[in-house]
Predict the structure.
Amino acid sequence: MKLQKRQARPNGEDRLAEIYKIAAQIICEKGFDATSMNDIADAVGITKAGIYHYIPGKKELLFEIMNYGMDKLDRAVIAPARAITDPEERLRSIIANHCRLLTGGSTPQGHNPVSIVNDEVAALTPAHRRKIVQRKRAYVDLVRKTLRQLKDDGKLKDVDVTVAAFSLLGMMLWLSRWFRPDGRLQRDQVVEEVTKVALGGLLRPSARFVAR
């Protein structure tokens, strides 16, 4: 798909966010190795030199896109969840907020480029890869800790906490690939349904699992 060129925005942070989102979409469609800085510059609507004014190179751009995505995850999902003491409410918050985040950035083609680009972690430099993996691990640990607390409270079904954590994350992340904002299902409906499915599969019947 050919992206339309965009007009420059006055705010530097907005401009960077625009570059990250457009670059992520191109990388999703072409793959990291096949994507050039010229491709990105042309799609954004600035010169290649203009791109290099913001980003020193393609690998650095990939790292910044991933950091941008993780920053959004921190603000929208992780920080609010850590402020919740009750593990059941925390889990509900994690699922609903992560689903909102993933569906909020989807394109008409049915994917969230910034989220999917995280699949390209192998293309990062070793130092950058360690940083991104560390940030991902912190989120996994939060989910696993929440499930372990539910297990200790007798609310979690008889499942392995680690398997449950990765299965839950996999189910949510798949939203990046199939949700279409112009499809039959509305965003809020999808968030509610995924929350019900997830909590219904994890919590014992005595626990409350109706999405709110």
Summary: Residues 62-202 form a domain with the Tetracycline Repressor; domain 2 fold (CATH 1.10.357.10). Residues 126-152 form the longest helix (27 residues). Residues 1-10 have pLDDT under 50 and may be disordered.
